[in-house]
Amino acid sequence: MNNTNRPTALWPPPEGFVPVPSQVAGIELYAPAPEEEPEETRTFKCRHCGGTIAYNATQRQLTCPYCGRTQELTAEEVGQAAAEFEFTLETMERREYGWGEERRELVCESCGAVVAVAPDALTSTCAFCGSHRVLARDVTDDVLRPTTLIPFVVDNERLQAQVAEWLGQGWMHPPELRGVRALRELTGVYLPFWTFDARIRADWKAEVGTRRTERYYADGEWRTRTVIDWRWKSGRVRLPINDHLVAGTAHVSRVILRKVAPFNLHGLVECDPGYLAGWQAKAYDVQLQEAWEIAKEEMRERAKRACHSDTGSSHVRNFRMTADFADERWRYILLPVYLASYPFEDRTFQVMINGQTGKVAGQKPVAWLRVWLAIAALLSPGACLGLLGLLTVPLGGIGAFGLVVGFILLVAGLIGAIFLFRKARASEEV
């Protein structure tokens, strides 16, 4: 107790005490601060045999691998009607943190990826880079808790033949890929994603060209030509953006993620920790504000394309646009992906499978000898015919004809060779 007539600066409350309501005017009361109760976390044990249970993607429920008993999950399917949040400090203060269940973290010393797993999970391989330099540590609860997720639907065992078929596709890849055994150990990981909604009002101004045909007289005859008339135009486009996805981690290739997309967000369910039982979950390393900046740049590009379409012409120059964002909202969700890394000829390649649809994408090594032979085959006809035409030019029309045809074939072969080379490079790079 402290009399308020006494200067409070001379009598600071003891450490660990907080003010409490007083029934007497002019009297301040202090009491020990209540102890914060730790948030309850869930562990997943079988009710019948006590074994650790896990979420089964095929049965879509918790399953005990020891006695085969199952337990239903009661999380509600919310789809795209899941709760969204505004960019306010108050919203962040109301958010929950941690995973909502007992977990530990595995840290890869090679690539730095951190995933959360069940406390008794045994793994020594990083799903992101294939490294065996993996260390375990206590989980940190300073990250936001995801609001919703899409459960795994495609089972690991059903993917083996599909992945093997994908590896064997394409003549430009080594035939030995069909025998790669590392891909038989696919790791299911819930990857973090941010989704953003916004309303964009884009005002544009540009010179827009209109094509017309006119006749003119030259060299004693009438001819036609195409003329473009330019004039300034302006307009406004309103563009609603819903569920714009931005990956919440930099440890996977965004190129491969785009290839395994889309995810059907109508399948979102409440983030019940039961769906994480027996599976790895990646915490976000791309923060909310950073993800929002990425999303805004991508949204501006969408708005720019909409404005170009609004001009009604393919001839546009001196284009300018200002975009205003309103009603910005976000969600933090988890999406299911199978990951695998496999070594081939002293290089490591990454493969990714959509855990909702089973779509496969990734890196594949290229048999460059085959590619160079194919490029040589594309260029040879034009080069040989052009050389032959060049040698027979003194003979007159035959040589000139061969030279022209050879040049046309060489240009066509060069275009095909560039396309083939870029396709081969894209198969290896991410």
Explained architecture:
With 430 residues, this protein is an alpha+beta fold. It has three domains: 31 residues, no CATH class; 250 residues, no CATH class; 61 residues. The chain has six helices and 18 strands. The strands form three sheets. Strands 7, 8, 9, 10, 11, 12, 13, 14, 15, 16, 17 and 18 form a twelve-stranded mixed sheet that branches. It starts with a strand and ends with a helix.
Essential attributes:
33% strand, 430 residues, 12-stranded mixed sheet, single chain, alpha+beta
Question: Quick gist of this model?
Answer:
This protein is α+β, with helices and mostly antiparallel strands and 430 residues long. It has helices at 89-94, 156-168, 254-260, 288-311, 368-391, 397-428; strands spanning 2-3, 17-20, 27-32, 54-56, 61-63, 70-71, 85-86, 104-108, 114-117, 134-138, 148-149, 187-218, 221-247, 269-270, 280-282, 316-344, 347-354, 360-362. Strands 7, 8, 9, 10, 11, 12, 13, 14, 15, 16, 17 and 18 form a 12-stranded mixed beta sheet that branches. Strands 1-3-2 form a 3-stranded antiparallel beta sheet, with no helix packed on it. A 3-stranded antiparallel beta sheet has the order 4-5-6, with no helix packed on it.
